[in-house]
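Let us work through a complete example step by step.
Step 1: write down the sequence.
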Amino acid sequence: MTKYFFALVIMILIATALAFKSYDLGDGYKLQGFRGHHGWIFKGLFAPIVFDEVMGVQGCKEGYLHGWTIGDPNEFFLINTNSNSLIWLSIDELNNQLMDKNCPRSDMNKEINLAGFANGYEFIRY
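Step 2: predict the structure and record it as tokens.
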């Protein structure tokens, strides 16, 4: 009976490992998560930066990542990849910050998440 239990645990661990995906966002940042989820943003493999469900993330050539999550009214985030800082904003505040930093406005057609990567789309910094 115990060997069946251990076999089941090993099969669950293998299935979990196969369902885990990680995609490079540049500057050491990764969008990671499990198949069927929206993902989280990490610096490296083990340092969570945005640990809410990331609905979409977009990059800027000026050294910023920005996107949005499901949650409170300030569900939009801006990550400065040069200083590794994160701020939470409303959509209007985010777009004002992006204009000040010479980055394109938030655009859902340019964002990517785990489902987009799984469908073969690429992450592009605009």
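Step 3: interpret the result. The chain has a mean pLDDT of 87.
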